[in-house]
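Page header: ASSEMBLY MODEL / two components / 232 residues total.
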Amino acid sequence: AQKITQTQPGMFVQEKEAVTLDCTYDTSDQSYGLFWYKQPSSGEMIFLIYQGSYDEQNATEGRYSLNFQKARKSANLVISASQLGDSAMYFCAMREGPTNAGKSTFGDGTTLTVKP
Amino acid sequence: GAVVSQHPSWVICKSGTSVKIECRSLDFQATTMFWYRQFPKQSLMLMATSNEGSKATYEQGVEKDKFLINHASLTLSTLTVTSAHPEDSSFYICSARDPAAAHEQYFGPGTRLTVT
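Prediction written out in full:
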């Protein structure tokens, strides 16, 4: 079974509007970390936001927030006030285990296009 | 933030030759580095976990004799694609964990390999 599921291959959003990118995960570990990365056409992976399994508050980083619903095993990324530069591929990832030494599993990604 | 570099950023080689890709952590010591492979518009697939001073741990289905990994120092891991074939053409990305960081995994900019 896939550990990270991103059901939206592609998404469109109007500039300045908010958009939610979906991510669900599957793990039996109690301790894990959830990540979102942005990959523009240049190929570099840009870290956006992190949520620990024991974090009670939803993570926020500037225009990015993570809607963490532990019981539903979902970790959706919300981008507010979309900008043209947000057009890229977005990956949700999960690291299982309590330390940062564990390997990460990535979803299939969502291609976001911001329309002017 | 921490920086991970990769060299070369792109390489074209002939079928049957070997290619070495370097991954360096520039301002931290990385006991663990990861090597990923990414086909166009697809997810990152973990190939192997590279541990300083010991043998790499390969993921199921990855040929260890074809993809040689060496992690000889705390700042350098290398991936050698031996006897490359056109199907090995891909985007190879390394990442490294800073032991002092809470959770982040730092990615290199990637190496685009084309085998003709």
